[in-house]
Amino acid sequence: MKRRIHISFVCFYSLVSYFHSCTAFYLPGLAPVSFCDESSAGEDCQSEIELFVNRLDSVESVLPYEYDVFDFCQDTKERRPSENLGQVLFGERIESSPYKFKFNEDFKCKKVCTKTYKKGARQDMAKLDFLKMGMQLNYQHHWIIDNMPVTWCYDVEDGQKYCNPGFPIGCLVTMDGRAKDACVINSEFNKKNTFYVFNHVDIKITYHSGAAEGWRGARLVAATLEPKSINTDQTNPTCEGPPMEVPVDFDNDVSILYTYSVTFSEDNSIKWASRWDYILVSMPHTNIQWFSIMNSLVIVLFLSGMVAMIMLRTLHKDIARYNQVDQVWVLSSEDAQEESGWKQVHGDVFRPPRKGMLLSVFLGQGTQIFIMTFITLFLACLGFLSPANRGALMTCAVVLWVLLGTPAGYVSARLYKTFGGEKWKTNVLLTALLCPGIVFADFFLMNLILWVEGSSAAIPFGTLVAILALWFGISVPLTFVGAYFGFKKAAIEQPVRTNQIPRQIPEQSFFTKPIPGIVMGGILPFGCIFIQLFFILNSIWSHQMYYMFGFLFLVFIILVITCSEATILLCYFHLCAEDYHWWWRSFLTSGFTAVYLFIYGVHYFFSKLQIVGAASTILYFGYTMIMVLIFFLFTGTIGFFACFWFVNKIYSVVKVD
To answer: Quick one: pLDDT at residue 295?
Structure first.
């Protein structure tokens, strides 16, 4: 949960382009900035281009670090733009950099600073060791120009080009001569047991001129760089020479000169509204992703249609037969007894469940999560949660969760009252505190590990206080308001009366027993999300951009349908077997999808990730458990309410004496 998620700009940028041409109206944070030569700069056109640096991260570690933690060149007048809640929770730490340049002014090999490490100096040794650790674990820079990532574009297989929104600190050639990570790009990186630090960058900025279109200045449409390792003359740098080597063993003094070059080029074929496209188009396996998602959707739609058809035909025959038995006395009592099934348990089907308090609390929280997810995905699908507005997705989700305490309290209270519960104070407190408390406790423990490790992802104490204030100051009171109206309303009226004496449940077959049914119930919903899940996990842990929110919203809708149909189908089979304990089973049947999510998370960790270290492993599984709990409540709530509607519907259309 520590990575930024990016969304598709296709529809959104079209909207922005339209606003620009018609009304010059832009959504917050997305108005284009015009740049001019220094001689013609003004209020509406600036010449200074600022390069900001963000936190560094790695695919081999869950611990991101601030730029300042590494011993890089720093800005003399460091500035930090204000960060929203989502950025802080994602561990983003943006600050100004010492790389300064002005629009349309090219230069070559400009010196930034020199870092010298003296042998025997303990502080220098610690700094250099940390830098080596960053290179060994392939930590990546993330630079920003004009609110757009500076990308490193390079050729991959089949002649395609991949643009990475980050570039490495350096690389390592191991003792056996194996070039790791970025060391494969240069044949000169061949000295065994040696680090090569990328101390020079060639920055290329592409702009779209407004001269032919009637607006002043130019707009930046791409920012790329090429990192290089160069051991050049430190007095009069030319940025030519052999690679900058840093031996694994600190036997001699080490001096690293950091330099950069900047070039500008005009390209009026790229519109400002589509300037992210070159990054998104170069995403690896994009075609496979589209094909896999379409294939998954077709399979799930087919299965959903089959389930719906079977349910409608079978139920129609059942209801017609039961009503006919009531009206026409042609069947003997034995035949009627044999043919009945779910109608036989009409006097027990609405008997309140055990642990009704806990079930109602889970359902209240699940409702809150469901509404939050739906609204967030809908806004992301429309493009309102732009990646240019960093942290917007997480901020939106947190704010929505806080404001949706009222539906959580209402649903929990109404169902608890329907179950015949009377401890309303306990119900409200558990709804407001139980599941959020578990998530916060997990999050707090993970934050302690991040704090001990000195990671930038550690949430500051002030932010933790702000989160607690949002929780107890807004969410909890709103939950009480919802619970007040929930308890004030009458209990949900059931279509049939409940008998005083519980009916004995007959011996069940293997497939109608609770555990096999619950285990089978999560397979179909998981089948419709596991492909999307792979790319979502890639965006979180492997720093790949996720931008297909349109598809994700469609998968979300299909997940809701599949959870509902799978739960209804299994619930019907259990009722036909005269097992009327459906309350918890309906919740756990679809909620078991979260167990498959956890199993997939374990498989993903061991098969796809290269994470090393105990701290990173604990963090991965700690954050995975938060996702599993949220998904458990989300899917369980969908299954319960689908089954609740189904049971009420079928028992309201048959005639019961």
So the answer is: 64
